[in-house]
Design a protein that fits this description.
By secondary structure, this protein is mostly helical. Helix 2 links the parallel strand 1 and strand 2. The longest helix is centred in the C-terminal third of the chain and has 14 residues. The protein is built from 3 helices and 2 strands. The radius of gyration is 14 Å and the shape is flat.
Length: 71
């Protein structure tokens, strides 16, 4: 018997880039069409607390508009 695990890995420098954006006072939100578990893992690696998973392209556009309008 064997076990195979698959998942997305954060690119090198990703967490540092997120940290730099936060240091400049920017709000960082991860919008993804991937499953919640995958998005949660990547968000945790990157230091992102706000994320949306299972988002279709049209929903991403709507969410970006909402975030922009909220200021």
């Amino acid at each position: 018997a064997g076990l195979c695990l698959f998942g997305d890995l954060l690119k090198e420098g990703g967490a540092a880039a997120v940290g730099a954006l936060k240091a400049k006072g920017m709000r960082v939100v991860l919008l993804s069409g991937d499953a919640r578990g995958t998005v949660l893992a990547v968000a945790a690696q990157a230091g992102i607390r706000e994320f949306v998973a299972d988002a279709l392209p049209a929903a991403k556009v709507d969410l970006i508009s909402q975030i922009q309008n909220a200021g």
